[in-house]
Amino acid sequence: MTDNRPVLTMTGISKSFPGVRALHDVNFRLLPGEVHALMGENGAGKSTLIKVLTGVYDTDAGAITLHGEPVSFAGPMQATAAGVSTVYQEVNLCTNLSVAENIFIGREPRLLGAVRWGEVRRRARTLLARLELDLDVSAPLGSYSLAIQQMVAIARAIDIQARVLILDEPTSSLDAGEVAQLFRIMRQLRDEGIAILFVTHFLDQVYEIADRITVLRNGGLVGEYTTTELPQLGLVEKMIGKELDVLEGIEEHSRRDLAAVEEGTPLVAVSNFGRAGAVEPFSLTIHAGEVVGLAGLLGSGRTEVARLLFGADRPDGGQVTVDGRPSSLRTPAQAIDHGVGFCSENRRAEGIVADLSVRENLILAMQAARGWLRPIPRRRQDELVDKYIKALTIRPSDPEVPVRNLSGGNQQKVLLARWLITEPRLLILDEPTRGIDIGAKTEIQKLVTQLSDGGMAVLFISAELEEVLRLSHKVAVMRDRQMVAQLANDDTLDADRVMQTIASGSHGEEADR
Amino acid sequence: MNDTMGRYRAMTGHRLFWPAAVLVVMLAANTIYRPGFLSIELKDGHLYGSPIDILRLSAPLILVALGMTLVISTGGIDLSVGSVCAISGAIACMYISRQPDQDSLPVVLTALAMAMGVSLVLGTWNGVLVAVIGIQPIIATLILMVAGRGLAQLITQGQIITINSDPFRAIGLGHLLTLPLAIFIALAAALLVAAFTRRTALGMIIESVGGNAEASRLAGIRSGRVIFLAYVLSATCAAVAGFMMTANVSSADGNAVGLWVELDAILAVVIGGTSLAGGRFFLSGTILGALIIQTLTTTVYAMNISPQTSLLFKAVVVIAVCLIQAPAFRARFTRRRSSAPPPSPIADKPKEQVPA
Question: What cellular component terms from Gene Ontology apply here (chain B) (predicted)?
Answer without folding.
Answer: plasma membrane
